[in-house]
Design a protein that fits this description.
Layout: E1 2-6, E2 10-14, H1 23-36, H2 41-45, E3 50-59, E4 64-71, H3 76-84, E5 102-115
Antiparallel strand pairs: 1-5, 2-5, 3-4, 3-5
Length: 116
């Protein structure tokens, strides 16, 4: 019997050596992810959980330029959900003191399914 589905946690890691957004932007990004993440029903019904890593490039206005699967979970549904979270998305814009045109980060999403 399946118990409640948890959305799991996530980890954020900047890629490259350019200027990085400060804690205010990172906190805004974390809040955005918390508000938009989901556990795909197909994965829950199949009892699938796992960890996915996606690489995201976002421009200074917050528009996501690209999403690339870096590490698979073993579930096509979880992999697709992690990518879909960012496709066509608009994340928080960069703070005024960050002059870079874009920013790249890896997001590790931990999908956890509680089984009873």
């Amino acid at each position: 019997m399946l118990g409640p589905v948890t959305r799991g946690g996530f980890d954020f890691a900047p890629v490259g050596r350019g200027r990085q957004p400060g804690p205010d932007w990172r906190n805004a990004l974390s809040a955005w992810i918390e508000a938009h993440k989901y556990y795909p029903q197909e994965a829950a019904l199949n009892g699938e959980d796992g960890t996915v890593v996606v690489r995201v490039v976002v421009d200074r206005s917050g528009a996501v330029e690209s999403v690339q699967l870096e590490s698979r979970s073993g579930s096509q549904w979880l992999d697709l959900a992690a990518q879909a979270l960012f496709r066509g998305a608009h994340l928080p814009p960069f703070p005024p003191d960050m002059s870079d045109a874009d920013f790249t980060f890896d997001l590790t999403m931990h999908y956890i399914l509680i089984r009873r």
